[in-house]
Write a structure and sequence with these properties.
Blueprint lengths: L2 H13 L3 E6 L4 H4 L4 E3 L1 H9 L5 E5 L2 H10 L5 E3 L8 H4 L3 H12 L5 E6 L4 H9 L3 E3 L4 H11 L2 E5 L2 H10 L7 E3 L11 H4 L4 E3 L12 H10 L4 E4 L5 H6 L2 E2 L2 H10 L5 E5 L2 H11 L5 E4 L13 H9 L11 H17 L2
The protein binds iron/sulfur cluster.
Length: 343
């Protein structure tokens, strides 16, 4: 092990129970070897409530640390090793524009319920809490979309259009009942004639990584690896999801590989750090696990062992992730609604 590994291990021991480190599956192995809990967005959000630690260090992208800060108990400090590790998809839905678009949609007299994928800023989640909506993850998008559709006349799903369409396909919501919105000029370009009849109003965002997977990658792999099973994340386009053998959250992908029989050949369409880890984990059982295409998230990669060590060296003085009282209160409402509905 390296000097950096030893340093972080010593610092963790020094803090003891006062420190908890959480890490997302897309983090590099060098970072994940230091975490107390590893998981997807939903699993990590669930962890926050039970944590007594005074300092919570979140190894993931910024919106995840914000969610942790919203769910933290009073006095608990949430930190991220590098605050510029943001999610490009979350950045595609700035709160001001979301509020304008929601207002424009509600001008038609319809009760439009906002439902934000967890990959969104705390301000956007706060708008969801404020306007009767909630939050979802890729694990519970179906349950949450069904719930949101029952709360009003239509749902504004944001920011991931692929997850919106894939989830709508799961519940057989006809394409004629969906509308991808033109969000330019603060909602002034919305086609209100169409919006009035749509039950699912879709924000046109996408994940910079998963959107790069194409149907031809699935077809090429099937030719190159006869018998391969292809599983993908629902942030991939509906064309890719249709071409695959299965689609689901990172937890689903992990379970799929674990449950596959020995000798299985599996291509996984998600971030490469996770796929490489699954390949190494199941190699001894003769499973051949490969990435559908080797893509890493450059933003997740901004969290490094060096930055984690630097944060821990200075933890007492480091400014924690901080949200305004309003944003904390309303984003907490949205997050707690989800945790309650999906309990
Ligand atoms: S993998 Fe996609 S959704 Fe996840 S942090 Fe990177 S850009 Fe955002």
């Amino acid at each position: 092990m390296s000097a950096l590994f030893d340093r972080i291990t010593a610092l963790r021991a020094q803090y003891g129970d006062r420190l908890a480190i959480l890490g997302h599956h897309y983090q590099a192995d060098e970072v994940l070897r230091h975490v107390d809990f590893q998981g997807d967005s939903l699993e990590l959000a669930r962890r926050i409530e039970g944590l007594a630690a005074e300092h919570v260090v979140f190894c993931g992208v910024y919106f995840m640390a914000e969610s942790a800060a919203a769910l933290a108990r009073p006095g608990q400090k949430v930190h991220i090793p590098f605050s510029e590790a943001t999610c490009p998809m979350a950045d595609m839905a700035p709160a001001g524009r979301v509020e304008d678009v929601l207002a424009a949609l509600r001008e038609d007299g319809r009760l439009v319920i906002p439902l934000a994928y967890v990959n969104s800023s705390a301000e956007v989640k706060a708008l969801c809490g404020l306007y009767g909506g909630s939050v979802c993850t890729s694990s519970n998008a179906r349950v949450m979309l069904e719930w949101a559709l029952q709360q009003g006349d239509a749902v504004l799903f944001l920011p991931d259009k692929n997850l919106a369409h894939n989830t709508a396909n799961q519940i057989n919501l006809d394409a004629t009942e969906r509308l991808e919105l033109d969000i330019r000029q603060g909602g002034q370009r919305i086609d209100h004639k169409k919006a009035q009849y749509a039950r699912l109003l879709i924000w046109p965002g996408a994940c910079a990584i998963h959107h790069q997977f194409k149907k031809r990658h699935v077809e090429d792999l099937r030719r190159a690896m006869p018998g391969v099973r292809v599983v993908v994340h629902p942030e991939c386009s509906p064309r890719v999801v249709r071409a695959a053998d299965g689609a689901g959250s990172t937890s689903y992908l992990i379970r799929y590989c674990a449950d596959a029989p020995s000798g299985a050949r599996i291509a996984v369409g998600t971030e490469c750090n996770l796929v490489n880890r699954l390949a190494a984990r199941h190699k001894a059982q003769g499973k051949q696990i490969v990435p559908l295409k080797p893509l890493t998230c450059s933003n997740m990669a901004k969290i490094t062992e060096e930055r984690l060590a630097a944060l821990l060296e200075n933890l007492e003085a480091a400014p924690p992730v901080s949200l305004s009282t309003d944003v904390t209160e309303h984003s907490r409402v949205a997050l707690e609604r989800m945790l309650r509905i999906c309990a």
